[in-house]
Amino acid sequence: MKYIDEYRDPAKVHALLDEIRAAVTRPWVLMEICGGQTHAFLHHGLDEMLPPQLELVHGPGCPVCVTPLEQIDRALAIAARPEVIFTSYGDMLRVPGSTRDLFAVRAAGGDVRVVYSPLEAVALAEAHPDRQVVFFAIGFETTAPANAMAVLQARQKGLKNFSVLVSHVRVPPAMEAILGSPSNRVQAFLAAGHVCAVMGYHEYPPIAEKYRVPVVVTGFEPVDLLRGALAAVRQLEVGRFEVENAYERAVTFEGNRPAQAVIERVFQPVDRKWRGIGVIPQSGWGLRPEFAEFDAETRFAVGEISTQESPLCIAGEILQGLKKPLQCSAYGKQCTPQTPLGAPMVSAEGACAAYFRYHKGAQA
Amino acid sequence: MCLGIPAKITEIYQQGSLKMAKVDFGGVSKEICLEYVPEAQVGDYCLIHVGFAISLMDEEEAQETLKLIGEVAAIEDELAGQADSDEVH
Ligand code: SF4
Hints:
heterodimer; A: alpha/beta; 6-stranded mixed sheet; 11 strands; B: SH3 type barrels; 5-stranded antiparallel sheet; elongated; binds iron/sulfur cluster
């Protein structure tokens, strides 16, 4: 496939690995922010080909993983209502809430449907005026333009039976939360390429400057990932801390302006709880007051819910790059993709699930 | 969810107030919304997320990236070749 195969070319991968080996003289800790990149590093076995001085730690960039348990419980409560058609991206269906998941709600007679695009949820609301259609609007800056457009469409069509359960998160505040922690280990970031396709990378220079860390916008194919790592290492070795773009074919400094404009019209920054990490100030998007009528939380009065995470789970430390999945005593034992105890095991893009899938460590 | 894959635009049309397109993901056809890359033309490649094109792939930049790595690799091959011949002779 164009734009895929040529970025998996073994000759180029090896040339880049040689360059990285030549550039590294000391140990460094890099964090890839995006779960898709964690997955890609492990899938292509690149983590094992990198020189041993380079440690990759895995960031919080899996939206399914960081959606808080309370929000899943709210989704389950809404989805169980007889008048509701509950729509969601497929990855959310098997994420366990406190007692069950959306699949279980469906098995018990709830009308839960998977959509590929949030516009499909809007179309369902148009087609079923007698039902309440709710869309589970989760994700980072990559899904926000789509989810915001769905709300605008619902407004334009005058739909009274469409609402969204919003759990949007933003990357830059999470980077700051990680860097600001006294136990931070991250020395350079590989920034999430597709988040940057939407947002550009103009938000990063102040972060790079303040915390003196290189930030390299990085794509998802082996050549992209290694170019990102190489650029980060070269900066670290000479003590630079700049923002670089190693995903030039898809990302510009400004990002996608029309998408940013629609996000800004529909959403505003709000404090948001991240599963496994806790509340990070201004780290999410919520509906602007002008769009409050589309808020499923108020429409179905599911605001107050409190939950308890498994005491075994060290997801918070994993999502901040302080620990790796193999350091968790429950990994592969009590906690597997079939019986996940915590955030990073619930989705294919979570670090624990990626380790499990690619057979890292002893498994029970 | 976040593994955006570049897809080729095969058809562009209007649906209600939205600019839409048919795209091809290596043989699989899908309908996507083109509101965020309105400048895209049939034949262009876009990055797609949850049914929306979020970025138009820049062919020139893509070529440039690949060329850069190619060049470094070529120089290294040459150096390696020299090293080999040094050993032989
Ligand atoms: S292996 Fe399971 S219990 Fe351990 S940190 Fe990962 S998600 Fe939590």
